[in-house]
Each structure stands twice: as structure tokens, then as C-alpha cells.
Amino acid sequence: MLRDGQFASAVEQAKISHHERPGAFPEEALSAALKTADVTSQQVDCVAIARPFALGPESVAQLELRARFPHSEIVVVGHHRAHAASAYYVSPFDGATVLSVDRAGDFRSAVLFEANGRHLLPVRELYFPDSLGDLFNRVTELLGYKTRADEHKVQWLSAYGRPDYIDVFRSILRKGSGRWLYTDRTFFDADRLTQGGFSARFYDAIGIGMGECIPQATRANLAASLQAAVNETVASMLGEATNVCIAGGLALNTLLVRSLEQTFPNVFVQPVAGNAGTALGAALHAWHEVYQESTRVQFRTLCLGPSYTPIEVKQVLENCKLRFRYLLTEGELIEQAIRVLNDSKIVAWMHGRMEFGPRALGNRSILASPLNPYSTENLNVFIKHRESFRKFAASVPVEQADKYFEVGCNARYLASVGHVRPEFRETFAAATLGEDCIRVHTVDPEENPLYHALLTATGKATGLPVLYNTSFNLFGDPLVCTPRDAVRSFYSSGIDALFVGNFYLEK
Fold first, then answer.
1. Which residues contact 243 (CB under 8 A, 6 or more apart)?
2. 350 pairs with which residues across the strands?
3. Order of strands across the sheet with 108-116?
4. Inter-axis angle of helices 278-285 and 79-88, to 10 degrees?
């Protein structure tokens, strides 16, 4: 929701409903977005919707929209244009090279735009099946993970391998004219419906027999080779550029973003880069192209979802017949949190408005102290139940980040990775990817004053203003939204303590 030129709300259906209903209208998300923005459907002037948005005829969906928003103009935005708009219009640039890259959105797998002022001009398109996203899907399945769901696992696994097979992936992604990729389909077999559908040529190239079990070390090396080849290819597709914006599903790959930060002078990634982010882009497209507004919408925070009053929280806790303490002041709240964290316990931290997008940024987070020697085991094995190579982020006040880490501006939204400075590598060993990479979350005091205050107070109490941060969700569920979600996840896990607003619960 844009209201008076500002983001008023943003909500994903899965976080509200916890149910997948392909093709159904996102009733719960719509209601939550309107309520959070304090707007009625009668007051909405324009509904912008990104393709593809209907399993059946689009005309039926548009008629349904018109019935729900009787006074609204309906604007339909191309998939990749919505991705590109979501990145460029909230970037700090007045002009940029913008790349939208995913699997096959709107039958295209990438579109390159040149942006100037409020205009986005497409200059090159890539059509499926030539697709970096498709190749990442295939390797995900080859390595035994769920395709179009677990690609992030391949990304993190790559940090522990060597790019021994990079020439194989370079051959698959052979470049056509003007550095644009053109996939060699002889590495795929349309008759193979499992393990990514790779052909005998691919298996010969990596030195493994078809159907053989891939050793763990080889799995990491394949992941590292794919990651390196994708990094090279995306940089090549962008060409010579000073200001770069990137969005689309592949832009959720933080190792790719870090590679681009090291290649181009200025890089901005839209942190909700996947399909959910096309909602931002569609709204921004309408603002700039339909209403011809030149003033940029300020991108101050991703905490744009619902929040809950103390009365609402108290009702949930009492209905569940739970014992709790109410902490009267912010100082008392932070003091209690530090006390629990310093006791080597794991804390669930739910405050303010829910984050939009896939990453927890301090409002729906699970926290642990880096000074806790068992933090890796407790967070990954006993709480999140996930692989050891999937590390959690390190949250740090933005003004103190440089002391501990080397990071870029995209660390504000966990959209990139950083490097641990040599003198602190032992301190952050539990969160380190490979040799010295780490997911860094720089926290701005204006964006999230309470979380920033907690980190600052932690630094005064322990000498280290850093907390490990992972998303407050369990077993593949979406990020928790409501107090009831928080209570359910708390009592279904090994989390030791829960803060919901000023309410404190412990086991």
C-alpha cells in the first residue's frame, strides 16, 4: 500500500494464512494490508498488479478486482518490469543499469533495463529455456534438495567447496552475442525426469557415472562451481555499468550480490527480490509511470506488516493460560533480554511491525549471543532443525559494524554477505561461512530503535555489540506474524525465552 507517497503497508499472504491456495484471491493479506494502512477498499485510487496473476483468464481476475475496488483504476504491470521497478525506484540512483533475473517470469528469464529519472527502458530480453534460474533449479534437485524451494541451500553449501567444475558450467552457460547467455541444451536430457534432468554429457564432464551417489565433497564443489559461473554470467550480462540495480528471484542470492559489489562501483539490490517484491514494483510503477510522479517514495524500512497492541497480546496469552511478566519500561525489557542471553539461552524476539520479505530484521527474530559456545548447535540442530552449513546472521549497530566486519550498504537488509576481520574470526566462528564470510545485518537506529538499543546495551554489558539473528519460524513455516503464531512456535521448539512486546515468557 502506498499512501500519500509513502509505503503504508506490505503483507505476504503465506505469513497471514499459513495455507497455500494457488489461484485464490489473497483475502487475508488484503485485509491486513488495508487495516495496517488504515485504508478502506472504497478509498483505493489505483490497484497495480504484476503478471502472472491468474491461473485462468486474466479478464476474470480483473473483473473481480474491479468489484472489490469499485473506485480504483486497474493497472497491469509486466513481471520483469515490476521486478525492475521494485529495485530502481527505491535505489539511491537517478540513473542505473537494472537487471531483473529469475527462472521464467512472464516467459522471460531476464530483462535488462536502462533507467533514467523516472523511466525504465528495456534494452535486452532473455527467454526461457535460456535461464540461470532454471540451471540453479536443476542443480538443486541434482544435489538432493527440493527444487524451487531449497536453492538457498545450494548457495550456502557453495561456501564450503571449490569451483573445480566451473568450466563445465561455463560450457552450459556459453555466451551468445554481446555477452548474453545461451544455454547448451546438450547437457540436459528431456527424458530424465529426476536429478535435474542432466544428460550423459554432463555426468561425463564431472567424472561421475549416471545414477551414482555424489560424494559430499563433490556436492560442495558442484555448488561452488555453479555459484562462480552464475556470478560471472550476471556480471557479463550487466556489461559496463557504474550504478547497478538487481531484482528477481536470483537477486535473493547474497553471494551473487557480494560478487557484484566487488565488481561494480555502486550496487543496490531490492531485498524482497523474489515474486513478493513485484507488489512493491507494481505500486511504484503506477506511482511514477501512471501518475507521472517524479518524487521518489522513501524506502526507510521493510517492517511494514501488522503490529499488535498490549491488549491484543495479553488476550492471546491469557486465552492460552500462560504465565508471563509485563516489563514496564524499555530499559527493563532490554535488561531482562541481556540477562537471559548472557545466560547462554536462546531468545525469541517479537516487536513492532512484521517484516516484509523472507528475512528477519529484528522484529520477528530468534537471537543468541556469539559468546555462547553452543549457539550453532542450539540454533541449527535443536531449534531450526537444518543443515550445519546454513549459518545465521550477525546483527550489529551500523555505526559499529566496520570494527568487526567488512560489509557493503546492502547489509542493511541482509541482502549481501560480509567478511569477518581477522582479529575477530575466532569470536564469530560459529556464524562463519567458509573461511571468513558472514551474513551481516547492520541495524540503523532510525529504522529499528528498539533492536538497535538492545545491541548497543549488549555491547556495554559484554563488550560485544553483536547478536546472532535468525528468522522466528520453524520447520519451513513462514515468519511468525501474530502473537498466537509466536506462542505456538515458542512452545514447539527449544527456544528458552519469548519477548512479545513488553510481555516476557520463559520455560
1. 91, 93, 95, 96, 97, 264, 265, 266, 268
2. 364, 500
3. 119-127, 108-116, 95-101, 243-247, 266-269
4. 80
- What are the CA-CA distances from residue 38 to residues 42, 43, 44, 169 (Å)? 12, 10, 11, 50
401-451 residue pLDDT tens: 999 999 988 999 999 999 999 999 999 999 999 889 999 999 999 999 999
Rounded distance between C-alpha atoms, residue 164 and residue 218, angstroms = 9
User: Are 316 and 448 in the same domain?
Assistant: yes
* CATH label of the domain that carries residue 433: 3.90.870.20
pTM greater than the 0.85 cutoff: yes
Give the model confidence (pLDDT) of 79-108 as tens digits: 999 999 999 999 999 999 999 999 987 789
- Total structural domains in the chain? 3
Q: Is residue 106 part of a domain?
A: no
Mapped onto helix, strand or coil, the DSSP state of residue 86 is helix
Cell reading at 502: 513488553
Which CATH number goes with the domain that contains 216? 3.30.420.40
Predicted pLDDT at 400? 97
Residues 342, 491 contacting (CB under 8 angstroms): no
Q: Which residue do the cell numbers 544455454 mark?
A: 183
The residue type at 295: T
Whether 177 shows a pLDDT value over 70: the answer reads no
Pairwise CA distance, residues 228 & 165, whole Å:
10
Q: Are residues 366 and 489 in the same domain?
A: yes
Looking at the chain, the number of H-run helices and the number of E-run strands are 17, 20
Residue 235 lies in a domain: yes
Same domain, 70 and 159: no
Q: Is 456 exposed, middle or buried (0-12, 13-18, 19+ CB in 10 A)?
A: middle
- Which structural domain, as residue segments, surrounds residue 460? 310-506
Pairing, β 325-326 against β 503-506: antiparallel
**Which of 454, 417, 452 minimizes the C-alpha distance to 435?**
417
**Is residue 88 assigned to a domain?**
no
Residue whose C-alpha cell is 511504484: 284
